[in-house]
Predict the 3D structure of the following.
Amino acid sequence: MGKDITELLEKTISSLDGIRRAEVPGYFLAKTKAKLYRTEQKEERFQFRRPVLLIAVLTLFLVMNSLVLLHLQSNSRYTHSDNTSSVNGFAKEYGFTTSDY
Amino acid sequence: MCLITKRTSLNEQSLIQGLQQGDEKMFSLMVETYQHMVFNTVLGLVLNYEEAEDLAQDVFVLVFQQIQSFRSASKFSTWLYTIAVRTALNHLRKQKAKKRAAQIKRFFGIEAEQEIGQADFYHPGVILENKEYAAVLFKALQQLPENQRIAFLLVKTEEMRYDEVAEILRVSVKGVEGLMHRAKENLRIVLNEYYKN
């Protein structure tokens, strides 16, 4: 009995000796190429999810925001001095000076 | 077989260069050259034709996408084997996780996909008189730790040398020897239980 089971075990363990490769299913190449094509298309569609592109878009957004802010700041400085001079002129014209009170 | 090997080693460098340039003709050449190797490696691990076909396709797509990261330090075929083994193992892990989730769902009374037991797998390349034994062996292999199973399958089904397996598993040749020894020991234990019942 002991010998029988040992033989059975060894026969089972060596049952893959001399195994041949299984045939690849039909049209494997065509199907694989189709899968590659589908994957590439999907990737193109989701290109915006790539970190490099996201960082580039974010940087561009920040640069544009900074430029607009700088531009507004410099404009507001001019506007502020213009406003002050026109108010002073208006006050002078109508005699609204601080010394009057 | 010998012809393919010779052709492969001759063209390996130009094949890699072509793939790195995104040449789709080279992609076809790669699939034609290595399809049997990749398909059979994956099949030995997942034991299902449809899944093995799908996964083997994934392997080639992945290789085409990641070819830039290939370093010529190892052989292209070794790299391909590594990706094939990793893809199959990831698939098996996902399957296991799905099964566990379904069990939990059933425990809480939520309807889950009915679990179907693994059917016996009959490899067409096994000689007729060994078919039944091989089906039992494939089932027993499922109970072995991953590295032991991979080492055993690559040596037995792909007739790989220990140093080639060592490169794929990133262990020493001695390590592979140990894995093979333990795999056989564990198989004896599992099979002993199987035949006793």
